[in-house]
Protein 1
Amino acid sequence: MKRLYIISCTIFTISLLLYSVFEWRSTDKTPTNAKHNELTPDFIAEALKSDIYNKIGDLTIEVTAKRMEHYADLDFTHFDYPEYTLYPKNQTAAWQITANEATLQGNNRIVLENRVLLKATDKNSLIQAIHCKYLELDLNTNIISSDQAVLVEGKDFTMYGSGLIVDLNTTQMTLTEHVQTIYKKNYR
């Protein structure tokens, strides 16, 4: 009887170990495959150039990027080294935004990160350039915002602060926290 008990316990233990190993291996593979499928872009574009027009045929945005990856299931598009040229609704001069990375969320919100530069194309603009690490752009309203530190370069001044809201249609800028302004004398 003792031998029968030892044999049945041994068979049960071996069966339990085999079952555990099979379960462990099958659960280990499933998330990896699901994760891989989830992060695969639906399409990729290299050396992207795209123009966007409004309903009456006016050019509103030009986009160029080294690389673009679109993820339809996640409803976002990722850009490497994008450059956006924005044409405001009031037909004033265009603005250019460049960054190392950008993410388009849905169809209207762009998050730009790493070495972000907003530059005026009008040489007579009071604000010539804005440098920061992070900007958000609403494509429907042409409003740019950031909660990070910013450097604003203008005609005869340089301004440091944090937090920024810029309406490109009205060219109105609000700096949330002003740190310092340095004025330069123009010797022309």
Protein 2
Amino acid sequence: MGWRAVFAGSAFVVALSVGPATADEYWWRFWHWHHYPEWQAVHYGMYGLYNRNAYLQANPEIDEAYKEPVITGNRADIRGLQATLDPPRWRWGAPCCYGRKPIHIP
């Protein structure tokens, strides 16, 4: 009976110690369970607009007068979709050492 108590106690201790080690994984799943559908819908929309722009730009048979307003509108829609997303929250091991301003290409 003594070895059963030792085995059950050690199994209990191991089970309790696994929780903190996997907490980050569970929080990642919790966040994606609540936020992933919206994020995925926005990314699929942006992906479709990027593909439409690429198709229009690569196809020489489509008139430039038709392409330009469609591509410009798609780019505006992409920027609007990007504005709905939260900014990235990357964890860096060290602070960034660059002192110059970011370059923004329109």
Protein 3
Amino acid sequence: MKKSDFWKSKYIKPDDLNGKPVTLTIKSVKREALKTNGREDAKPVMYFAEAQKGLILNMTNFDSAVDLTGEGDTEKWPGHRIELYPSTVEVSGEVKPCIRIREPSQGDLLDKPPPGVAGDLNDPIPF
């Protein structure tokens, strides 16, 4: 069992990606109050058409979303496709897992199976 099996979260965590990138369609971005180290802060949370969990946006991922969508206003992000991928970040000298955002690496190929592949590739996202 993974750590995430014991401590469920309504937000996407690096473990949820299972080491692989996933392409999703932005549904909305909402401001939510989150508690960190006993302090409550309002953070942007990105939600997707294909997933139930949202992604808490840090400044790096927010800026990446602005670059990918070409929009500085989160209300104009819905409908844009992005790819979440697992990465690492150094925090206080310690390397920790994280999620980053980039342009989908396979674009429209994700919407239809390649020649010779039978079945539906639109399986539900596990988070």
